[in-house]
Amino acid sequence: MATRRLTQAQYSHGGEYFFHLDKCSLIHNIADHSHDFAELVVILAGTAVHVVEGTATPVNAGHVFVVEQDTVHGYRSVDRVEYFNIMFDQSRLALEDQLHQLAGFRALLQRLSQPLVLEPARLRRLEATLDGLHREFERRLPGFAAMIQLQLSTVFLELSRLVGAEPPSEPKTPVDHAQGQLEQVRDYLEGHFREPITVNQLAHLACLSVRQFQRSFRQAFATTPSDYLIRLRLEHARSLLATGTLRVGEAALASGFSDPNYFSRQYRKRYGMSPSQGDSYGIQSRAPKPSPSHFGSGAVADFSAE
Questions:
Q1: Which of 93, 126, 225, 293 is most buried, by CB atoms within 10 Å?
Q2: 49: β partners
Q3: Where in the sequence is the domain holding 210, given as residue range(s)?
Q4: Which of 121, 115, 131, 122 is nearest to 22 (CA)?
Q5: Residues 124 and 41 in one domain
Q6: What is the DSSP string of the chain?
Q7: Of the candidates 165, 187, 215, which is a domain's last residue?
Q8: pLDDT at 203 over 80
Q9: What pLDDT is attached to residue 85?
């Protein structure tokens, strides 16, 4: 199947300068495609896997990257992404020559596999700037095209300075990259453990096959994805029970367990008592987040039905 190619004509609003800006939600995967324009993408919330020319990179809030003209890319494992997508003609940027003289700008164009990461305060400031750019685009007052060119060039200058100010680092090895993907999966579990989660979903997020993911997660964190998810749910349920405001079944459902009987068995297995007994004993301190460890083995069960 041929890769779909998007064109400026599909988004053009007339005039000599091509520009289009969307601030929107991404709620489904986007198949591989290319376009005859460039894109500046700013992730405001959510997570996804950005696939560029076959290379997959997890992205989340604060990630900023440029997709150049004719680059084949797409998104998968999309989870409630909010983002700015700014389409522009790279050859028609104001201050184009000056921008290309900046090492930071050239690096920004080349770091699709390692997006620029903005801290929350900088991300909020960039969002406010892009909101202003969006208003300018929507109002189309006289001279709006020139204003947009200047403001977009200012955004690129600021981003280029941030890239240029980053301390030099050693190139990531395949092991470093895989570890980073697994840590993102772990963080995803900690933020979404109340929701239905399957091992296939996590494997996609890690850009690994199910078997590779199960093995790699255990090698990295000395526990299985299933056991880690159950532990997160049990700890949350125990904290709810300790408040004395919820029944056992209600705490189970509020913590991601669909079967109260299964929850009770797991609770007794972990804490040596039933949930109805445990809520009078108070809350133990939260188990530490698993940290990377070396080696480990053993099969991991699919926990899609848990």
A1: 225
A2: 58, 76
A3: 174-278
A4: 131
A5: yes
A6: -PPEEE-GGGT--SSSS-EEEEEEEE-S-EEEEEESSEEEEEEEEEEEEEEETTEEEEEETTEEEEE-TT--EEEEEEEEEEEEEEEE-GGG-TTHHHHHT-HHHHHHHT-TTS-EE--HHHHHHHHHHHHHHHHHHHH--TTHHHHHHHHHHHHHHHHHHHHHHSPP-PPPPHHHHHHHHHHHHHHHHHHHTTS---HHHHHHHTTS-HHHHHHHHHHHHSS-HHHHHHHHHHHHHHHHHHTTSS-HHHHHHHTT-S-HHHHHHHHHHHHSS-HHHHTTS--PPPPPPP---S---------TT-
A7: 165
A8: yes
A9: 93
CATH number at residue 88: 2.60.120.280
Q: Which tens digits make up the pLDDT trace of 93-112? A: 666 677 777 777 777 777 65
Examine the domain organization and report whether 136 and 12 are in the same domain.
yes
At 134, give phi and psi (nearest 5°). Answer: -65, -40
Same domain membership, residue 253 and residue 107: no
**What single-letter amino acid sits at 191?**
G
Domain identity same for 150 and 97 = yes
Which pLDDT value is given to residue 95? 65
pLDDT digits (tens, 9 = 90+) for 222-261: 899 999 999 999 999 999 998 888 899 999 999 999 999 9
Token pair 């300790």 in the structure block, residue: 242
